Structure formats: structure tokens, C-alpha cells
Amino acid sequence: MRIFITKPIIESGIEILRSAGHEVNVHQGEKGITKEELYSAAKESDALITMLSDKIDEEFLEKNSHLLVIANYAVGFNNIDIEAAKRLAIPVANTPDVLTHATAELAFALLLSSARRITEAHNSIASNNWKGWEPMGFLGQSLANKTLGIFGAGRIGQSFAKMCQGAFDMDVLYTSRTEKNDFPAKRVSFDELVEKSDIISVHCDLNATTMGKFNREIFKKMKSSSIFINTARGEIHNEVDLHWALTHGEVWGAGLDVTNPEPMSADSPLLKLPNVTITPHIGSATLKARSEMSDLVATNILKGLLKEKLLTPVY
Asked: Which active-site residues does the annotation give?
């Protein structure tokens, strides 16, 4: 069987597939795969390992209905038309759990960087502006006993909240479709979350109800001392409105691992703001997490090729 991978991944998963006797082809090159290249490769393949940047829509699936399985190298799968895949009986898998702690760690790092103005302070040294210790220099925020608001209390949101509770004894509020009985936090309405939180961290999936959820109207309701963190999907916040909020004192700082659009242009006005820390979608970028993701997508592919139940099916 032939498996195509749209970007290089850690070798352990590839070895799992090759050891099982399958042919594995990996798209190379710094630029992402084009639509034409993906269509061409899929036609010659039995299974795909895809990335969030790969658009697997209804048209693609209908033209490649021969595929036996698709494994998305991510927790999210909004790049895949799941209803079309279901209708065409193409199994789809993702990589939950294995990147939970890594992504929560990154959200924690963004929070610390934002609160203590680390990026701004670093840039001042790089610009040769460090003249000596200043008693009023780079005054940041203490995080102890703050109120943390979690928007989307799934695995990653809960893991991040527990880090904040353990390190800073934070009170935690959350909004979620369902009550989290084993989560030591208070479930509140979205409006209450926005108005009462000192920090708001986004961990929900991207769908019709969360698209553009954080806009100018919402940022105006947040505390002027608040910090906004997004490690979920860039489309959940309106980037123009976030820039407005950060420059008009509606929000104190922001930490983003995802942007809208993505990748972000070097000309983005957000990059020119001192109170923003931005990373290039590296939430799961630890050797441990990416290795486990590689092994998991490979195992799901093997299961799909044998027409067995996937380990982590999307539907």
C-alpha cells in the first residue's frame, strides 16, 4: 500500500509504516504542498497523513474516494470536510491527548512572557537600549491569585488551568458546552467570563459559533488589565480588532501561537506592538509530543488500511 505524507514528520512514524511493508512518500520542500501536488499525490496513494494547512474539502474527497484512511497530524480537523468523508466512508483520525501537555506548556509560556513583558525587554537589549537597572523599567503584572478564564475547557484548557492553579493559586472560570465535573473550576456564561477574568485563554475548536468570537465588542468588555492568550485557532479572534484593543488600552497584553491569517505576514501591525508575544504555531513542538503524534498517525493508518477501528477516530 502507498501512503503519502504532506510534510516531513519525525521518522519514527514513517518507520512504523515501512516496517509493515508499505511504501511511504513524503512531500519535501520549504513551501507547503500545492493543491495540484496534493491532488496528484492522492491519486497515486491509498492513505494520507495530512496537516492543518491541507484543505481536504468535499471536492477533494469526492475525487479521491478511493482513499482508505486519512490521518490528520493535529488534534483539530477543521481542514477536513468530515461530513463528506463520512458520506464517502473514508475513515479520518486525529492526534488527541499526546500533545495536550505540550500545548498547555506553550500557553503558560505565552502568559508569563506577556505578564512580565519578556519579549519587549529582550528586544530592548537587542536594540542596544539597556543602559542599566531601572527602578521603573518594564513593570509587569504579578499572576498570583488572578482570575483565569478558560474558553473551551477540553483537555488542553484544563491542563493549562491546572498549571496556573498550581503555580499561582488562580481562581478559574470556564465556558464549555458541557459541565466538567472533575475540573476544579466554576462554569460561567461567556459574558461573565469576559467581564471577570484577568486572563482569558482560548482552547476551543474552530466552528461556526467560535469563528471571530473575540472581536472589538468583546475586547471592550474585558478588563483593561487583562491578558489575552490564544493557542487554539487564529480565526477565533479578529486580528484587526485585537490590534485596536491593544493600542486603545482595552486589553493589557496578548500572547498568540495562532494568527489570522496564518502564516502571519512580517508586515503585520501586531508585530510592531511591545505588548504582544507571537510564536509560529509551535504549541505541540516538543520532541516528545511530535514523536507521539508521528507514531499515532502511523498506527491509525495501519488500522485504516486493514479496515480495523482507528485508535483515535474523528467520527
From this structure: 233, 262, 281
